[in-house]
From TrEMBL:
<feature type="transmembrane region" description="Helical">
    <location>
        <begin position="263"/>
        <end position="283"/>
    </location>
</feature>
<feature type="transmembrane region" description="Helical">
    <location>
        <begin position="33"/>
        <end position="54"/>
    </location>
</feature>
<dbReference type="InterPro" id="IPR001851">
    <property type="entry name" value="ABC_transp_permease"/>
</dbReference>
<protein>
    <submittedName>
        <fullName>ABC transporter permease</fullName>
    </submittedName>
</protein>
<keyword id="KW-1003">Cell membrane</keyword>
<feature type="transmembrane region" description="Helical">
    <location>
        <begin position="141"/>
        <end position="158"/>
    </location>
</feature>
<feature type="transmembrane region" description="Helical">
    <location>
        <begin position="91"/>
        <end position="111"/>
    </location>
</feature>
<dbReference type="Pfam" id="PF02653">
    <property type="entry name" value="BPD_transp_2"/>
</dbReference>
<keyword id="KW-0472">Membrane</keyword>
<dbReference type="GO" id="GO:0022857">
    <property type="term" value="F:transmembrane transporter activity"/>
</dbReference>
<feature type="transmembrane region" description="Helical">
    <location>
        <begin position="188"/>
        <end position="210"/>
    </location>
</feature>
<feature type="transmembrane region" description="Helical">
    <location>
        <begin position="6"/>
        <end position="26"/>
    </location>
</feature>
<dbReference type="GO" id="GO:0005886">
    <property type="term" value="C:plasma membrane"/>
</dbReference>
<keyword id="KW-0812">Transmembrane</keyword>
<keyword id="KW-1133">Transmembrane helix</keyword>
<feature type="transmembrane region" description="Helical">
    <location>
        <begin position="60"/>
        <end position="84"/>
    </location>
</feature>
Length: 306
């Protein structure tokens, strides 16, 4: 039972990393913008957050540095793709490649660096409960913040004027522009907000989840977050569920190894990504379902002049 409680706790921890980034990308895509640069943004944010935490001794400073790095890179992407009308897919790929190279270069001096003692967290009165205490109530505050953010985002998209305007921009930017909404400004704000969440995810990876800096440490999680938006059919609650599914499969390999299951480690390492591919293939079989939920103007540039 203790081993299963630890598996659940590790699943929530691993899932939070992907969920934060995926929720940010969902905001982008609800506004009609596809940003393939999540991997690069998360890598730059990871080294920025780790370096800031090392020098300041504060995890909070590290998170803020990661958020700033992600938002800055997203701002550059938005300026190119939204205002200069460069191809969104090519610009995102370039951002991802730049982030991988830049983070590797900047991070050379931090490979051996170490953070101070890691704090432990517990919800008073609940953390000591048998099984569910260690499974659910000894998590970093960002784990609970990700759940709260999911609920807030779902409510905002469905119930608030800002959320409805964001969705309108993603569905028909021409109609939103005709109604007087600044489409490109709204898209830029959505992209920057998404970049900030990707940055928070990157900083969480290097400051809390690992915690250390290694070149390429995001290891494809940015691409998984991008895939989760389609898996979740652009709905926040499903994004969180998909993130926990990925986190559970990721942690399952370590759980099986700990239980002495004789399976090749290479195959176990493949499991999270294999599971993601299988789910995407199954979902993609129903094109009408995807089209009914996908923002109609996803990936399409908008030119106010015509």
């Amino acid at each position: 039972m203790e081993a299963w409680a630890l598996l659940i706790a590790a699943t929530l921890n691993a899932g939070t990393l992907v969920a934060l980034a995926a929720l940010g990308l969902l905001i982008n895509e609800r506004a009609g913008v596809v940003n393939l640069g999540a991997e690069g943004m998360m890598l730059v944010a990871a080294i920025a957050g780790f370096a800031a935490a090392v020098h300041s001794g504060s995890d909070l400073v590290g998170f803020l540095a990661g958020i700033g790095a992600g938002a800055l890179m997203a701002l550059a992407f938005g300026g190119l793709a939204i205002y200069l009308n460069t191809n969104q897919y090519a610009t995102g790929l370039a951002l991802s490649l730049f982030g991988a190279g830049f983070s590797a270069f900047v991070g050379q001096n931090y490979v051996q660096a170490k953070l101070g003692p890691r704090p432990s967290f517990a919800v008073p009165g609940l953390a000591d409960l048998p099984f569910i205490g260690p499974a659910l109530f000894r998590q970093h505050p960002l784990v609970y913040a990700a759940i709260a953010l999911t609920a807030l985002l779902a409510w905002a998209l469905a119930r608030t004027r800002a959320g409805l305007v964001l969705r309108a921009v993603g569905e028909s930017p021409e109609s939103a522009h005709a109604l007087g909404h600044p489409v490109r400004r709204i898209r830029l704000m959505a992209v920057v907000a998404g970049g900030a969440l990707c940055g928070l995810a990157g900083a969480y990876c290097s400051v809390i989840y690992t915690p250390l800096w290694v070149e390429g440490m995001i290891a494809g999680k940015g691409w998984i977050a991008l895939a989760l938006t389609s898996f979740a059919t652009w709905r926040p609650a499903r994004v969180l569920l998909g993130a926990y599914l990925f986190g559970g499969v990721t942690m399952l390999q370590f759980h099986l190894q700990g239980q002495g299951v004789q399976v090749a480690s290479q195959f176990l390492s493949m499991l999270p990504y294999l599971a993601t591919i299988v789910v995407l293939v199954l979902i993609s079989r129903d094109e009408r379902f995807i089209r009914a939920n996908m923002p109609a103007s996803l990936g399409r540039p908008f030119h106010p002049g015509g």
